[in-house]
Amino acid sequence: MESINPLSKANISFSLAMFRQLSEDHSTTNIFFSPFSISSALAMVMLGARGDTATQMAEVQLTYSKSF
Q1: Where are its TM segments located (predicted)?
Q2: Per-residue pLDDT, 68
Q3: Could you state, in order of their start, the residue ranges of all structural domains in the chain?
Q4: What is the mean pLDDT of residues 43-62?
Q5: Dihedral (CA of 6, 59, 68, 47) sign
Q6: What integer pLDDT is reported at residue 52 of this predicted model?
Q7: pLDDT at 50
């Protein structure tokens, strides 16, 4: 995955982590979710976040940067 840009890599990691979390509780049922929609919504909310909140949101999305 070295040729994948950091944002794409973060989105893939976030999507897989979310899938693992959702499937843990629902291992015998079908799961439908849109990682892109969730990431987009969280990114919009994060634009208004500052300080610890912005840092925690970035960590959840696996895009932590010291620039927040």
Answers
A1: none
A2: 40
A3: 6-22+34-60
A4: 87
A5: positive
A6: 94
A7: 94
